[in-house]
Amino acid sequence: MGRTGNALKTDDVLDFQASHAQARDAVHTPLNIEALTGFLGNEPYYCVQSRAPDRSTYLRRPDLGRRLDPEVAVTLPKGDWDVVFVAGDGLSSFATQQSAIPLFRTMQAQLADWTVAPLVIATQARVALGDDIAVMLGARMVVMMIGERPGLSVADSMGVYLTYAPYVGCPDSSRNCLSNIHPHGMTVPAAATKLAWLMREARHLKLTGVGLKDAAPELTALETSKPLPEKDNDQ
């Protein structure tokens, strides 16, 4: 970086301050649930929150963000679902606001033969909160769409975590992660293509995490090939 005397150039200082402000806003701005659900039309959905009562507690106590508020948990009806998608605010509400519903819509179209539970919107959420939600709903798989920790270049990046047979206390090694989903990183269509492949393989192999990652093809190969019927992927 250039300098003026012993100081950074003014443009560089202002760029840094702007990026830092965007990162702070991404962390502290509440998820706009009303705007998010407006895109769902008449589709059913559930709104839940973790055991962290407010943002300050959430940031200081990650453990509370991994478990459902007990009073909210009992409102989730048990069902028989192949998968539940969760839109969690995480550390960037901007990311979830921007990418969660488009990804959910795309996945609904790609998983027409799956029983997909109503979307769950979760606040003060950590990745593992999806396990608790899936257990309560009776879902065999959970896809947590969550805002990633913002950096000084990207404040609207969403991560997706796929877990087969989730349970409370499930280790991170049992998950598959797609990260950097934002307009200038991995696009929603690309993420959906990759995620659909992983989900079909997970259902066939009955696992996610380290074992599935080793077998997953490169994203470029997926993007240049036509989607195969599920029975053809089971090889």
TrEMBL record:
<keyword id="KW-0456">Lyase</keyword>
<dbReference type="InterPro" id="IPR042251">
    <property type="entry name" value="EutC_C"/>
</dbReference>
<keyword id="KW-0170">Cobalt</keyword>
<feature type="binding site">
    <location>
        <position position="177"/>
    </location>
    <ligand>
        <name>adenosylcob(III)alamin</name>
    </ligand>
</feature>
<feature type="binding site">
    <location>
        <position position="127"/>
    </location>
    <ligand>
        <name>adenosylcob(III)alamin</name>
    </ligand>
</feature>
<dbReference type="Pfam" id="PF05985">
    <property type="entry name" value="EutC"/>
</dbReference>
<feature type="binding site">
    <location>
        <position position="148"/>
    </location>
    <ligand>
        <name>adenosylcob(III)alamin</name>
    </ligand>
</feature>
<dbReference type="InterPro" id="IPR042255">
    <property type="entry name" value="EutC_N"/>
</dbReference>
<protein>
    <recommendedName>
        <fullName>Ethanolamine ammonia-lyase small subunit</fullName>
        <ecNumber>4.3.1.7</ecNumber>
    </recommendedName>
</protein>
<keyword id="KW-1283">Bacterial microcompartment</keyword>
<comment type="similarity">
    <text>Belongs to the EutC family.</text>
</comment>
<comment type="pathway">
    <text>Amine and polyamine degradation; ethanolamine degradation.</text>
</comment>
<dbReference type="InterPro" id="IPR009246">
    <property type="entry name" value="EutC"/>
</dbReference>
<keyword id="KW-0846">Cobalamin</keyword>
<comment type="subunit">
    <text>The basic unit is a heterodimer which dimerizes to form tetramers. The heterotetramers trimerize; 6 large subunits form a core ring with 6 small subunits projecting outwards.</text>
</comment>
<comment type="function">
    <text>Catalyzes the deamination of various vicinal amino-alcohols to oxo compounds. Allows this organism to utilize ethanolamine as the sole source of nitrogen and carbon in the presence of external vitamin B12.</text>
</comment>
